[in-house]
Amino acid sequence: MKRLKLYTLLIAMASFTINATAQQTIQFSQYMFNGLALNPAYAGYKEDVTLNLSSRIQWVGINDAPQTSTVSVDGVVNSDNKNVGLGLIATLDQLGPESNTSIYANYAYRLRLGALDTKRLCFGLGFGGEQYSLDGSKFIATDAGDGSIPTGSISKFTPDFRFGVYYYTPSIYFGASVFNLLSGTFNSLVDNPEIIKPVRTLYLTGGTMVQLSDDIDLKPSFMVKEDFKGPTNVDLTAYLAFNRRIWLGASYRTGVSVLNSNLQSDLSEQDAVAAICQLYISEHFRIGYAYDFTVSKLASYQNGTHEISVSITFPGKKQRVVSPRYF
Predict the structure, then answer these.
(1) Other CB atoms within 10 Å distance of the CB of residue 191
(2) In Å, how far are 224, 226, 267 from 258, measured between CA atoms?
(3) pTM, whole model, 2 decimals?
(4) Are 291 and 302 a contacting pair, CB within 8 Å?
(5) pLDDT recorded at residue 155
(6) Helix (H, G, I), strand (E, B) or coil at 42
């Protein structure tokens, strides 16, 4: 079953795991510009209502390789104290015969630290669910009636919670979040052996803004993703910002054996190097692009990964002048 083996390889390498017992959460190179996808406590960070769209086409040249899209909107409820942030995010993740659609409503309580309101400690909660589907018609079985391949399409819906903490100042930010908090609680809803069960995933993020000159800033950041099933995923990124309008950066993504390697010996933990650019057309409109150069064993079988992101902010009547948002 060549196609079945290819799908198994794609799923395994996409999640850095030796088996496909769990689907890892979505991956974006421009994660710092789509904070709600990583942390519900990010809701309302920019205060004004902000719309984010992201689309990622992975491993171009490989049929049915991963494709991921998200759309999110968030903002604060009260423009005076700005203590409550609300957000909504929807995601579609497609990998060959499997697809995962999710939607989450997010609530963040934002503690004000200091009279100038330049720093906040935020606690966030997200509630929603995921619809996982598997299309058995996309497999071509060598043996007719192969019991491991479903006939037609099967799908299951699983409700879930997310929790996060987010701290920021004008120059630094740190975040921690846990996805799939109800993992295992609703296993009875996912009783098909072909259906991949979600697993609990931990995110740690952080970054800073360093002024190098009047016109140039350096913005390094990191993201750590741990699903307790395979190597820990580490993403290191750095941008140079010119007049805070044009951002040019690069990132390196790899796996690190911290808690549980669970990776077969002939697979490398190295994943990709990305070139990223961001353009602020105005204070309220940003467009970004990333190109990933795969450095794993898939490098010779594909032509890289393309990712586009767009942010649009809708300013309120009261313009914010203190603590501009760079994350």
Answers:
(1) 8
(2) 11, 9, 17
(3) 0.84
(4) no
(5) 83
(6) helix
CA distance 234 to 72: 24
For tokens 């496909």, what's the residue?
20
CATH number of the domain bearing residue 67:
2.40.160.40
Count of other CB atoms within 10 angstroms of residue 146: 13
Instruction: Tell me if 264 is assigned to some domain.
Output: yes
Instruction: Give residue 271's pLDDT.
Output: 72
Residue 318's DSSP bridge partners are: none
- Domain span at residue 283 reads 2-314
pLDDT along the chain (327 residues), means of 10: 49 41 67 91 94 92 86 92 95 88 96 90 95 80 66 82 95 94 60 63 94 94 87 92 94 76 54 92 94 78 88 78 64
User: Tell me, what's the pLDDT at 248?
Assistant: 97
φ and ψ at 19, to 5 degrees? -135, 170
User: Token pair 């309120």 is at which residue?
Assistant: 316
**Amino acid present at 83:** N
Say how many domains are in the chain.
1
pLDDT at position 92, please? 93
Return the structure tokens found at 29. 């190179």
Burial degree of 97 (CB within 10 A; 0-12, 13-18, 19+): buried
pLDDT at 138: 75
Contact 243, 279 (CB under 8 A): no
Question: Under a CB-based contact definition with an 8 Å cutoff, are residues 224 and 232 in contact?
Answer: yes
The answer to whether residue 235 sits within a structural domain is: yes
